[in-house]
Design goal:
NUDIX_hydrolase-like_dom_sf; WH_DNA-bd_sf; 10 strands; 3-stranded antiparallel β-sheet; 7-stranded mixed β-sheet; WH-like_DNA-bd_sf; alpha+beta; single chain; about 230 residues; Arc Repressor Mutant, subunit A
Amino acid sequence: MTRYSRQTRMLVAVDCIIFGFDGQDLKLLLIKRGFDPEKGKWSLMGGFVQPEEALDAAAVRTLNKLTGLDGVYMEQLAAFGTPQRDPMERTLSVAYFALIDINLYKQQLTDEYKAEWFSLRDIPKLIFDHADMVHEAQARLRYKAAIHPLLFELLPPKFTIPQLQILFEAVYDAGFDKRNFSRKVLSTGLLVKQKEKERASSKRGAFYYKLDKRKYSAKFHAFLNFVSDPGNLR
């Protein structure tokens, strides 16, 4: 095959911003980089796109390699291509963000990469432009979560309304009125109330809910207005 003449070749990589929720904090999964440059420093999970591989397939492979999970919510974020972003060689990186239920990864997570969860309030210094990727992913997550029910991807199969509120407050780093939050969430019709209660947090307890998967799939791209004007929350 004839190649484009007088053009410089470059590497293409994918990097995964992996968010999880432990019931109290929104967290980021990081690894210790295993090779130079920046060997031993904290990094996002990434890898190079193979010649016969699509970008999405490379991101799925990278996530699966670290967590062992399939069918995880993942979305392409942006391309990062500053010429000097990787001091070793000119590399264009396409970033993805993923949302996983922390409880699902516990047995699958490989020890090979020395992965560790960090609260978004306490992220260590990251290599290259990975901090920029994380900041952009946070902004995208806040925007999408305001109008779509994607934060349910971070929750276990059954959860309480207070647990869901804690998740939203962690994502937006802001408080929400309990009564208004409950009313707005229940008005979506996405939740199915269970008979059992979670009693560890209070004597009265809070009812568990499950997600109606059929309605969730049907309404995922609907404008549900979970959070009004998320950009101005403090």
